[in-house]
Amino acid sequence: MAVQPPEEFLERMQELLGEEEYAAFRASYDNPRFAGVRVNTLKIDSEAFRKAVPFELRPIPWCQTGYYVDEQTKPGKHPYYHAGLYYIQEPSAMAPVELLEVAPGERVLDLCAAPGGKSTQIAAKLRGSGMLVTNDINAERTKALAKNIELYGVRNAVVLGETPERIARAFPNFFDKILIDAPCSGEGMFRKDEDMARLWEPEWIRKYAGMQRDILKAAAALLAPGGRMVYSTCTFAPEENEATIADFLLEHPEFKVVPLKWDPRISPGRPEWLEWLAKREEGRIYPAEVAAQTAMCGRLWPHKVEGEGHFLAVLERQGEGQPQEETIGLGNAPSEWEGESRSKRESRQGHRGRQGTGRDAKGVDERELLESWRAFSREHLNEAELPGEPLLFGGNVYLSPLTKERLDGLKVVRPGWYVGSVKNGRLIPGQPLATALSPSETVRVLDLSASDGEAIRYLKGETLQVEAARIQCSENASPKGYVLITVDGYSLGWGKWQDGMLKNEYPAGWRWT
To answer: 112, 146, 178, 456: which one has the fewest Cβ atoms less than 10 Å from its Cβ?
Structure first.
């Protein structure tokens, strides 16, 4: 059944587009939506991916690692999805990160990140170097964000649940690249999400426009001179797009819009809609040089491309980049725990670390935690040292791309790569450690096949009967102990082998359903 957009929305679009273009736009809602997957190149390259997956792929023109797929093939129901080889993503949503032009070694912030698709895209471009700070203010949504960072094997990310303003206080002029996939009225997603079309109200436009201006203001303080920022929405409203960018440029003359030089199917911005707003409402009249810059923004239209509606703006801060101080923190700023009882504070998943040679908030000896992690590494890993600074929180060990001072006072969901927790003096390896390791980095590996059902049995949490000869061991190692479980060579999780029995360590919340 065709999507029925709200009548008031259609009247606005008819006035904005004119009769001829509106007819094509309106007809697009009678067409089926498009589905896509994006290759996770942290784990597999595009060529190997095309050979491995059993469903038909068709390239998405604005993303080299993106492919159209038929939704009926159910790409989420395959062991390779659980191995983090690809992310299921709406095709137009792949465009903003491509415009960010992330390079390995850079400091990147994804400011409005949940559920994490664009963050995993950024992480793949960083190739394990530099750092990614990924953030969302919604506590529930950060759970999905953290899981996706972990599933896709990201080692160099920190997950926050903060306001943009508090992040700006902790990281002034720090980031080379910032992505703002801003909260918006969602008009471009009506075909993809019928509930959004049903619930839409015209008042959303003004509400979200105000939020977007505040987010951009905070982001401006976070970006280093010479840095690049991409602002995107999945809505058509000029109040949230051209007008938001024009207002930002007026208040921040050190920023300029960068013209889009890529796929010709990306349509330009509509500076004439600023005049439409001024006539229709009490909108401001913008200087010609500011209005002209909005024409250098871009739009993905559902009647012109195989994807949903998106607005895109690339902004660069003028000036030369400067090395940033690594230990700036919030000092005496109140933490997220202020006013809470001790027991409630200690039950939180996000923690502020106290690293050193003493004890943490739960009385755990931090030297014992570090030694437990080192002992596990010696026994189960081939790598002498994995990247990142060990950060210790209430019996948990993380490897972080940031120092503890940087995180002090912030609402931290994940301070880095979670490698495990310590119980009775021994480290219990975490699922995120497994998903980010390659088979060559571990002492024991059990490879399962996607074709014979054994991998699915593992993903369902079943105990497996496994002969010792199937455990691939490093030189002089016995098969007994923690084993990295892989599917066709790609990591899935942990198992613990002893006497022909593989105890399944795949977490209940991740299991195949």
So the answer is: 456
